[in-house]
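does this look right to u?? phosphoenolpyruvate version
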Amino acid sequence: MRPKIAAGNWKMNGTAAALAELNALGPVVPASGTTVIICPPAPLLFRAVDLAGPLNIAIGAQDCHAEPKGAFTGDISAGMIADCGASHVIVGHSERRDRYSETNANVRQKAEQAWRAGLTPIICLGESLDVREAGTTLDIIATQLSGSLPDDVTATNTVVAYEPIWAIGTGKVPTLEQIIEVHDFIRAQLTSRFGAETAQMIPLLYGGSVKADNAATIFSAENVDGALVGGASLKASDFGPIVTALAAS
Ligand code: PEP
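got this back:
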């Protein structure tokens, strides 16, 4: 049985007051069987970890540097994130790939840094609208997968998130058939690279305009093990129903 994961990416939103949303989310977090992860802005990590522990909510960061330390003004290392008590880190989000020119090789290094620090990387992949319209989505996903995932992926140390860029923050959601096609493809690629036993255990999250009203449909796909949620993770009243839909799936 693969873990079910509902992960919220707050991006550059929220100050300390926003942490009240964790308390509001607490009552809907299942006691077992579903992992809920909130990734707040880095300055909130310490406080978020303190608050979230008793609520059964895990805390992650939104990015880490590809090196363990050094003269990288403004950046944070995986070790610093772990030192805050967080357990996960998103790497390769399309906003990092696009706006900060992060390559698959950078993402791979970041995932390795995450492991070294004892964190679980949530490695993001996804095609642009141009790629989708050109019909080369699966080629791009294959390239991102082979370039961004290190060789040392195991059954328990990695989460993969498929996030079509054109669906992020746009309200546009792929059809269920499109989601199934890509998730089945990712599972098959993982199987050929890491073997069936490992690949069967790696959680595959869908991300891109997941809301309370489409979550149950998305979670009905066999190879969708949860969601990476942006906008709808900011408020417990929006994210709670998504968590509940996942738990019921
Ligand atoms: C995201 O940024 O990872 C994301 C999925 O955003 P949204 O849910 O707002 O589309």
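The radius of gyration is 17 Å. idk if thats expected tbh
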